[in-house]
Specification:
The complex is a heterodimer of chains A (397) and B (273). Chain A has 397 residues and is α/β, with parallel strands linked by helices. Helix content of chain A is 38%, strand content 15%. The longest helix of chain A has 20 residues. The termini of chain A are far apart. Helix content of chain B is 76%, strand content 0%. Chain B contains eleven helices and no strands. In chain B, helix 9 packs antiparallel against helix 11. The two termini of chain B are 39 Å apart. The chains are: A alpha/beta (397), B mainly alpha (273). Chains A and B meet through helix 1, strand 4, helix 4, helix 7 and helix 8 of A and helix 4, helix 6, helix 7, helix 9 and helix 10 of B.
Chain lengths: 397, 273
Amino acid sequence: MRNPLNRRDFIKTLGAGAAAGLCCKPRFSFGGSDETLRIGYLPITDATPLLIAHALGYFAEEGLKVERPRRVRNWSTLSESFMTDKFNLTHMLLPIPVWMRYNSNMPVKVLAWDHTNGSALTVRSDLSIKSFVDLGGKQIAVPYWYSMHNIILQMGLKKVGLTPVIRPQSYKLKSNEVNLFVLPPPDMPVALAGRKIDGYIVAEPFNAMAELKIGAKILRFTGDIWKNHPCCVIVMKEEIINTDPVFTQKTINAVVRAQKWVTGNMAEAAKILSREGEGYLPTSVESLKRVFTGYELSVYGPGAVPQAIHHPEWKISRIGFQPYPYPSATRFIVNEMRQTRMEGDTGFLKTLDPDHVVKDLMDDSFVKKAIMDVGGPSAFGAIDMAHPWKREEVIEL
Amino acid sequence: MGILKRFFSRKSTDLRFLQKGKWFAGRGYYSLAGLGIFILLWVAIGYMLFTRPGYEHFSGFLPLPTLNALYHLLLDPDFWRSVYASLRRVVAGIFIALLIGIPLGLLIGFYVKLRLITYTPIQFLRMISPLSWMPIAMLIFHSFEAAIYFLITMATVWPIILNTAHGVTLVNIQWLNMARNQGAKDYQLLSHIVLPASIPYILTSLRLALGVAWIVLVPAEFLGISSGLGYLINDARDTLEYDRLMAVVIAIGIVGFVLDGSIELIQRAFHWG
């Protein structure tokens, strides 16, 4: 018999044992109807449709197996988890899948809009910033280079003649320059209160929390600049969509039903999501109520300083849940992304054709059917019934 | 200054001045004094920082709001679930690190050639922040839980390997020579002399590993899990509740202190040679 503790064997066994104990084969197959829905989300109100669809049991009613949605803390973790199949349904800021698919060749598809509006530009209250013009020479944080927030902010800055720059914080800014940098959303209110930054543009509830907890001011709601703009979108992987369209349709049905329910039950939705309710978000119900119902003209409208709402006639809400991904908005975003200053390799944007993105990245067949099932586009306030799947993008600073 | 210097330098390397039974000259007295200084500093620096205008929103960092939040935390079943979840992750991660690190450390310490071969890769790998492994962890493992174990293992395996190997090199060479003369094989040397003699070093490495594991835990719990002390800290940050954040920090401190203390007790029992 050989020596049982021969050192080479010992190392070999050890290595094999460690490998067997640690590693688990990654999942390669997408099971047909026995696929379980694994939802990932960030603790922001952008996740509302996915969370409410789970809370109200809509996924289960569609006959889907679903795990409780899992909370991660930043976009990189979310997209990495999604790409490695930890999640098969998630929400992402619209520019992220554009970048994933066309810069990194990742097989993602956008199936619907997750929500509209739901973001704001928040500023320190002690600087008497009254409008975009006053942002010259200031430090503004964005949540991610590939975000609606970055695009809308830079659009606004350029319109009033300011130049967005990306510089170290010690850099001496000219009076017409605005310095941008990325900051994780939870750190934004802290940095603002600690006077490290002068403002930030981000999704809720970080604007509502800053209003309520540190007395910051909302300079402008993003939905008041670009009427009912998309923010996060619903993404799934191309493989699932192709191999299992029934699963995909059921998933989107549940999401759209949730979007319709939230549209009619804003306050109730805030309660369910809150820490006092079902605990999907760690946020208090007070902050969430502000997000879902806090769009009063008396607080933000004419006469308020700064005036966060310039277009009361648009009759929008602070956060909306219209699911249809209007191609005009996609085209607009792709065009704007080219002119938006970002860190990193943005070369792929130069050759990217907006019409190709509309056809190639977006798949609106599932969401169209789901919308028809819940009463058609009018259920979400589409106005032009002659062309329900088209709209004109309205952008006014 | 002179008094302080005299106080600290007198018998500075010897613990025999501690007298059992006399509270003012015992170990507990010095521990309490240290704790008192820590709390005083916390209060002083806290009030200096957070009573300035514009910083009132951060008064949660001060001791009183923290203690209040800690009290509420202790009554919260979610907190205890989180303590359990985090402990399980730390223990599992370190356990895997021990399984890999002790044998590797023994061999590296025992065989000089192996030590030379592994020197560069180990020095290289141990300098990498374990969090840079996060994307790789997500690719390899299909559950978040396993990915977190992996991150903790990656952080803790290096001090275990290095300390164990160091312990092995300090084994009295005459013991080994004597055993060899009696015809002992390498594996017998390893199991009968090297391993027992290195146990104090392994236990020290365990204490080091424990500290590192808690450092990695908070960012590792960024991943998709639903409980844990790091997860609670992330929640507190997401909602600007700094009293709660500090309370969890204190809780982590206490848990770590208890764990470290229990290893120290074991260590005393093994303090031979």
